[in-house]
Amino acid sequence: MAEESDLVGFLRERQGQATLDEISEGLGIPKYGPNSAYALLQLLRSKGVVDRKGEMWVLLSLIHI
Fold it and tell me: b/e for 29-58, b at 16 or more Cβ within 10 A?
């Protein structure tokens, strides 16, 4: 299972932004459902770490989780 820090690291490697498909494929996790890329993104969004800009999920905070 991917962790919050894995997702943040992935976004950092991609210049701070990626689509849900890219995140799912890059981390090897499902797009939706429990323990999914979307669930992790929503958790990070609630913490103010990422936000959605169109199709892209964008890293807002450079603080390591």
Answer: beeeeeebbbbbbeebeeeebbeeeeebbe
